[in-house]
Design goal:
The chain is α/β, with parallel strands linked by helices and about 650 residues long. The protein has helices at about 45-55, 75-85, 105-115, 120-130, 145-160, 175-190, 205, 245-265, 270-310, 335-340, 375-380, 390-395, 405-410, 455-465, 480-495, 505-550, 550-560, 565-600, 610-635, 640-645; strands at about 5-15, 20-30, 35-40, 60-65, 70, 90, 165-170, 195-200, 210-215, 220-225, 310-315, 345-360, 365-370, 385, 400-405, 425, 430-435, 450-455, 470-475, 500-505.
Length: about 650
Amino acid sequence: MTALLELSDIRRSYLSGDQTVDVLKNVSLRIDAGEMVAIMGASGSGKSTLMNILGCLDKPSAGTYRVAGQDVATLDGDALAQLRREHFGFIFQRYHLLPHLSAAHNVEVPAVYAGLSKTARRARAAALLQRLGLGERISYRPSQLSGGQQQRVSIARALMNGGQVILADEPTGALDSHSGEEVMTILKQLREQGHTVIIVTHDPAVAQQAERIIEIRDGEIIADSRPQAQGNPQAKMLELATPAPSWQQMAGRFREALVMACRAMAANKMRTALTMLGIIIGIASVVSILVIGDAAKQMILADIKSIGTNTVDVYPGKDFGDDDPTLRQALKYGDLSALREQPYVSALSPNISSSMRLRFGNIDVAANVAGVGEQYFRVYGMTFSQGVGIDAMQVQSQAQVVVIDANTQRRLFPYQKNVVGEVILVGNMPATIVGVAQEKQSMFGSSKTLSVWVPYSTMANRLMGNDYFDSITVRIRDGYNSQEAEQQLTRLLTLRHGKKDFFTYNMDSLVQTAEKTTRTLQLFLTLVAVISLVVGGIGVMNIMLVSVTERTREIGIRMAVGARSGDVLQQFLIEAVLVCLVGGALGIALSFAIGLLVQLAMPGWQVSFPPLALLSAFLCSTGIGVVFGYLPARSAARLNPIDALARE
């Protein structure tokens, strides 16, 4: 009959400096199903190392170890985890319970990794605790239980998935005599029920309660009181089948990993909050800069458009600053008529400007006087706080009328609200005020100059005495490409003049320049914010690495009860992603608060949060969790169970 556990010439060596120390030396041992075996020896004799090899927590340096005829050396990490999870049950001297979990949750842990449903494992955990006399303490945490009660929880955990082989390392070592007797009674009952029980102890009184005692000294077995084969009709055999996990089991393990990650985060609130802080600041910075930057860009573009976008200005000469007198008079009245007939022209207005004195009563001020057409105010989208603009009849009749701006009203009429109908002197010409142009609020600030407008015919014939224009402004009809319209306009005037004695300026180029400038500035600020986000991610990685170090023993416990490396990797990765997602959500909430404050401080700004920006923030926080959480998670998954369990 095949032995349940069989060791052949097992040797286990460790490096100590430059020397190799043999802890186990050519140990051969056979344990059948249903036996109760005590491995006894002094401290340092190698008994714990032997138990770790028997429980597949450690691997021998040489020799062969077979479990139910299967050579353990041929099994990978996941297969070894399956052995520990489904066939072995560990009872540790220091109990090794997870402090942030209740007694029931501690017992459930092996079943979580086995893929047992939530309802089934809770019922089994409750039944096991009830059976061991802890039915009223199911929801207690380890700190609320006595040593004997904690050891019973440890026994229940060992039995959760069946526990055909119970490995007890000094099970009574940390207990008083009464509790120790209770634990030994439970172990003998388990043996009678068919479990194979292996006890590691240095206490002869404990060893005497086993039916077989193996003595070990200096890594060698010196005595084995194996009785004649009697057999145990209740013995539980091992079946090493490896069923493929179902999607439901995989989804269940993921769900439980998520729950365990939440519990771990809740158990370390301060550390979790500090980890989130960098992500919160980073996400809030990125979203706020994107949103507020977009609002600022829209404000800038709105101010530029208020000047008159979708317009083309035509100037005499070859470029700005050209003072060639032969080109100064290039724009004539006929050009105005020709441009009016073009289908791409929505509105247009000539401009003749000069600096003149304005007088009313004893107030005398300098102002910029512009002679314009009746469509000028439409071209620039100007509105009026009082009165109206200049009409076509006034242009044709060279009417002595004037439109003033708000600055001029304040200077000439400081105590008068309604000024339409008042007469002022423009130069030496009396002119009746017909309207006051509405002052526009701009992020560029309000203009401090005084500006007034008169009909261009009045300006040319009554004030200046010239027959040409300083410029012509053309508003392009909606639906026409401004650059194509500019090209057609240039061809028309070139044909009319016989040469190109003028140049154009498309206001759309100003808008494009402003958009490019604001995009560049926004990109720069976003990069600065992204750097803070990366710093936050590095903070997550550092704190998660510290968390792995702090929770090394927890990782060892999980591996001992059957967690795969992938399960440990998944849990720590989920924790990192959760931290970043919650931090991202709080960061977005903070950016909403910042946006609200900006809206209150600057009512003219339209602060909005496009869904794409919010989605990008969430994806960014998730990505940071995955990228910066992977290294700590991988570090946790690669821990050796024995080294992890030994860490305090």
